[in-house]
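To: structure subgroup
Subject: Chain for Friday's discussion

All,

I'm putting the inputs and outputs inline so they're searchable in the archive.
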Amino acid sequence: MKLLFVASECAPFVKTGGLADVIGAVPKALAGMGAEVRVLLPAYPALADLLATGTEVRSFSDFFGGSARMVAATAQGIDLLLLDAPHLYDRPGTIYLDPNGHDHWDNHIRFGALSMAGADVALDGVGEWKPDLVNAHDWQAGLVAAYLRQSGRPAPPLVTTIHNIAFQGLFGPEVMEPLGLDPALFDTDGIEYYGRVGFLKAGLIYSDAITTVSPTYARELLTPEFGMGLQGVLEARQAQLTGILNGIDLDAWNPDTDPALSTTYGVRSLGRKAQNREDLRTRFALSPEADGPLFCVISRLTGQKGLDMLLDCLPGLVARGAQLALLGSGDAVLEKGFIEAAARHPGNVGTIIGYDETLSHQMQGGADAILIPSRFEPCGLTQLYGLRYGTLPVVARTGGLADTVIDANDAALQAECATGVQFAPITTAGLDQAIARTCELFAQPKVWAAMQRRAMRHPVGWEQSARAYLDLFTGLIKGVQ
């Protein structure tokens, strides 16, 4: 089975969030099951070394305003197809934002180009390699479906995966012509969305199947609260919608071997986790005298993540003898709020603005619990890392958080299956109660240690989910043969 993934980012090469982690892990898991996967990715500056060592497999003389080529390369166990178009991807800023923090003015062209290249490979392959199925990820690859539709040619089955429906790729109707889109597609039954071009909507309308990253999120997307205006489209295509839970890379996230930790540990050597806690306290200037749990947050600082509620809960958290170490960046108001909270609670709240992959591992290794109070969360990965590291997740009951963490209620504790704390409703009061429950559990060392060991044994890898993807892909391929 030959599979083409089309995505805007892929770990460890280029990453802004969980999408990259998924694209970096699933192809390897599928390869282990016999599939042959290639990932089509824009050739951002961070990929220059791979371009230099790769093999050119296709060239374009006039590709959205400049010359371009496609380069095949293999790195980190992943077969890549790099879309080398310097006029689109070689620029300052991040892969989505300019140096001033605004969307690149031509993101519609940049990711329309990625989609067109994906459709091109789907239809004609590269060399002797031609995919049996294409999996397009999020809005940046949404127009793969539109380009295949308007080609009128037989095409392999297409699956569109929603990682976060809040980001839809909406642009004015004037982009139709420069994107080379057939005007007939600009219709309410096509890619038109309230007078704009909807990249993600194109994928939802024209794909053979739609997946998203957890079963609960798949159900939530059918409601006005979570569907973000596309719930009607998804309801009409409910038979084609499947929720498949994300996993994590068990080699990259392993407390037994993690080089980022000063002291590695496992289920049978859980006591060694304590040294990482002390190291983390030192890094965040936290007092070693606290007797409550050390909570951590590793997150984008946005309203979606519910961290405004956490700011309101900090006085209660500190009063219970607990501490907080936060790593993140995003909304300026939230950044300021957590910087000020650290100043108000010296020794008990520590804040580092930014992102540091090594530090994120050290926080998972050193914290007692990880707070994830998201108002919605398609899947989430940090709670899976927390389970793996015995850093018990305290999560809102939504999306993939609800699917992956077993709440420590009385029944779950008696059945010896609890792995963390869930809370609902998703309010400041609900979060405060969850923090209080966590502190009460932490004060019972035998109960806490049993939950940690259970969490660390909980399956969080890709094997089961990759099998679900493979079964879905196999069914679609057989359907067109």
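Points worth raising on Friday:
The CA atoms of residues 118 and 172 lie 23 Å apart.
The first helix runs from residue 18 to 31.

D.
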